[in-house]
Amino acid sequence: MSDIEDSYQNPRKHRVIHWNPEDEEAAERARSSKRKMIAFGVVSALVVVAIVATMILWKNPDEDAKALADRLGITEEAVPERNFQEAFASRSKADLEMETAQIGLEKIRQMRVNHPILTTKLVAVEREFLQAEELMGRQAYDRAHDIFLSVNEQVEEFSNLVEAKIATQEMYDNFLLRVDELKPSKHLNPDAYDQAFEAASAGKQFLAEGSFTASEAKLTEATEKLQEVENSISNFIRENSAMGHRYIALGEGAKAIGAFTNLLTVDPQNEDAIIQIERAKNADKVFNLLADAESLERSEAFEDALRNYQEAFNMDSKSAKAQNGLSRVRRKIENRDFNKHLSIAQNAEQAGRYDEAIEHFQLALTVFPDRKELADAITKARADKRRTDITRLITKAYALETENRDWEGAREIYQQLHDMEPGLQEAKDGLLRTGKVIRGLLRYEKYLEISTIEAQRMEYQQARRSFDQAMQSKPDYLPLSDETKRLQQHLITQSQPVPVLFISDMSTWVSIQGPTARKPTKLKESTINLLPGMYRVIGRKKNYEDVQFRLQIRGGVPQSPITVICDERR
Fold first, then answer.
1. Is the domain defined by 498-563 classed in CATH 1.10.238?
2. Which residues pair with 549 in a beta bridge?
3. Contacts of range 329-335, beta carbons closer than 8 Å, 24 or more positions apart
4. Stretches in the chain below the pLDDT threshold 50
5. Does domain 283-370 bear CATH number 1.25.40?
6. Hey, how many other C-beta atoms are within 10 angstroms of the C-beta on 45?
7. Pairing of strands 562-563, 498-503
8. At CA 48, angle to CA 47 and CA 50, rounded to 5?
9. Is the pTM of this model over 0.85?
10. 214-264, pLDDT tens digit by residue?
């Protein structure tokens, strides 16, 4: 407010400027002339200085160069004089170290540095390498050899630092991933979680400063603290899981659901907890069913107990009590029924009902698998059944073959007999006999089918040949069906040639392609006998368009005259 009042009390003074464009242009021209004069004077002075310096240096260049080097603090190293052998040995050693240094430098140049400390070290190594190269040029091989050795050591150290940096960075990245995963559960061990963060922060700072060993130590500490958090999570999961399973066994479903729900707060993808929550929903009913089943089992009402155990198992397939109860009661039922099965099997064997005997022997054997007499009884019953079955099957197959002409059925039985007893002569003879008849029937049916298809395609000559082959394969006892007779009559009709009148102009070459082919010929009117089938008629005449068309000839059907004349010029 006071500033505003001062501005009113002491108003600013404004200078009035009178602008004249012509005066301004004159002033600008004056300033430009002045700048040109100054520039000319500076250039002249530099030229004079250069000429004087050249004259001075020309008089005694060596002394002047030495004086200049002394003023800059550069001293030239004196190279001791040596004989040829010593100089050659020194240079060889220096060359070897230089080659190693070049390879090492090329290797570290390709490394991903991305860190100021490493960049500084790389520059220092490059500088020393250049210094050693300069010494090699001046034949100071011993000094160059020592510097190349130092360069190689620094290259090795640099490589180790880069590897340490990469490893440390990887540790830090892994820490970030793990700490993010464990964040929802940090309340289980907040101290370890916070300490892990502090150690990781320090490790990150050391990493930025280039202290990779210290960074690795801190990040290792952070990782160990995270492991403590993970251990706390594992303990929490284990305790709640054990508590939930105990509540399910006691039939307290609500408490079990609470325990497993707590577990899911830290491990939402825990499959066992999700499954156990579903089990806990029926824990009360399953508990009551199991209690009733145990009571019924004690009173030897095994079927009722089995139903209760089964119902409990259907509700909770993970219940060990239900599974054990089912297995136990079934065993008791089997033990009770063992004597009954054994008695039925023995009676059935005496009556020749071998399938029934074998079935009940096997039921008895499931109760006592180690009872050798039961296995022997089953073997004997099977052998007796086998002999009886072979005799019965031979009789049945022969009846099918001789009385019913059921060759397929007879062959199946003979094949069954051959599988049962490969050396049985009756089975071998029956297979050969029925196989021969069946093959003849198959050929007969195949050629009849081919003949029918060829007749439908109007390929009557091929159809007639296929029909003849079918008749050759037909068994003598088999009569012709009505359909086969119709096919036979149709083929006879279609085997007779049909007269066809062809008309042309005596200048068109007429050719016929088909079952009855004719070479190109000129004609006026000509009757040609053609076998039934599909034909192609072609007319050709010089300088005229060809005439082509298909012709279908059917036996028993009169054919109208065919005109073939080329009358359309090209």
1. no
2. 537
3. 329/293, 329/297, 329/302, 329/305, 330/306, 332/297, 332/302, 333/302, 333/303, 333/306, 334/366, 334/367, 335/367
4. 1-28, 30-32, 34-35, 38-43, 45-79, 83
5. yes
6. 10
7. parallel
8. 65
9. no
10. 777 777 877 777 777 778 777 877 877 888 878 787 877 788 888 878 878
